[in-house]
Design goal:
The complex is a heterodimer of chains A (49) and B (262). Chain A is built from one helix and no strands. With 49 residues, chain A is mostly helical. Chain B contains seven helices and no strands. In chain B, helix 3 crosses helix 6 and helix 3 (51-74) runs parallel beside helix 7. The relative contact order of chain B is 0.15. Classes of the chains: A mainly alpha (49), B mainly alpha (262). The A-B interface holds A 2-4, 6-8, 10-12, 14-15, 18-19, 22-23, 25-26, 29-30, 32-34, 36-37, 40-43, 45 and B 1, 3-4, 24, 28, 31-32, 43-44, 46-47, 50-51, 54, 96, 99-100, 103-104, 107-108, 110-111, 210, 213-214, 217-218, 220-221, 224-225, 227-228, 231-232, 235-236.
């Protein structure tokens, strides 16, 4: 792998992983809030209802 | 409380994200396959279609939004948690771009300069920017009431903003291994021409659009976290009220409550 390929791979992969991570975090918080609204329980993201 | 209505996903943000991905695809295609190799650097110059745009986002876009948000929060007339959340989102996204600036610069520097890293003014001040952003994010996790946290973080963002002009002018103020302006010289004359210039421009647009999209999504998480904090506070208060009510009713009850004491 050349330096050019490595640079593009690192940059694009990092942004992709960060973007997907943000999307997942957003979804977890949305679900946690929805569950909390329905049950009046404190919000814990990722907790199973 | 209808949280989902309060923080609905704006459609323009989705459009910005899609446009960013399309522009990024074209930048990679043009940068890796269409543009000619540079006369001096050969194929290595292809890294410069992504490194300066990433650095621009880290330094000016993220730094600018963090500074503006923090100043507007600190200014009593414009004080709103909107500015605090926006600044916090910009710092987190900016930290990712700052790290990428150092990494892509290092990957370019190894074959161009012969070293992965040098304690040069531009490189060191950029690394300091990244560390300051990490410090801001750590400070944000310190437990405090929202107003105190916002004020502390706004002051920390001002420290980050102080480093931005140092990074920008480092190549003019000190003799550095890093070259002066890659795209424009101090007189704003373009160094790059033809398809290389267009690819550069597209790279700037692509990374800027991706930054706006990431900022929008991160901002939404910040709103959701604050909503969760409010809900948790409401539940805690309700519990404390009910505990207090129980204590009062127990205190008012005749002793012994069931009249069974001997």
């Amino acid at each position: 792998m050349s330096y050019v390929d490595a640079g593009y791979t690192v940059a694009l992969a990092t942004l992709f992983v960060y973007g997907v991570g943000l999307g997942l975090r957003r979804r977890r918080w949305e679900r946690a809030l929805k569950v909390a609204e329905d049950s009046d329980e404190p919000v814990v993201p990722g907790a199973r209802s | 409380m209808n949280t989902s209505a309060k923080v609905s996903r704006p459609r323009w943000l989705t459009v910005v994200g899609i446009l960013g991905l399309v522009c990024m695809g074209f930048t990679v295609w043009l940068g890796l396959w269409i543009t000619p190799p540079d006369v001096v650097q050969g194929n290595l110059a292809r890294l410069l279609y992504i490194h300066p745009p990433i650095a621009t986002v880290a330094l000016y876009w993220a730094g600018g939004v963090a500074l503006a948000g923090s100043l507007l929060y600190l200014w009593p007339r414009t004080r709103s948690f909107f500015w605090d959340r926006l600044a916090a989102s910009a710092v987190e996204v900016g930290a990712v771009f700052s790290a990428l600036t150092c990494i892509t610069g290092s990957i370019w520097g190894r074959p161009a300069w012969g070293v992965w890293w040098a304690w040069d003014a531009r490189l060191t001040s950029t690394a300091l920017l990244f560390l300051l952003e990490l410090g801001y994010l750590a400070l944000r996790r310190v437990p405090a009431d929202p107003a105190t946290r916002a004020k502390r973080c706004a002051v920390a963002a001002l420290l980050i903003a102080l480093d931005v002009p140092i990074v920008h002018f480092s190549v003019d103020w000190w003799q550095t291994l890093h070259q002066t302006g890659t795209v424009l010289d101090p007189g704003f004359h373009l160094h790059v021409h033809g398809s290389m210039a267009w690819t550069f421009l597209l790279g700037f647009i692509a990374f800027s659009l991706i930054f706006v999209w990431l900022l929008g999504v991160r901002y939404r998480i910040e709103v959701l976290q604050d909503e969760a904090g409010h809900q948790e506070m409401d539940v805690s208060l309700a519990e404390r009220w009910s505990e207090g009510a129980d204590l009062v009713s127990t205190a008012r009850a005749p002793y012994p409550p069931d009249g069974s004491a001997s």
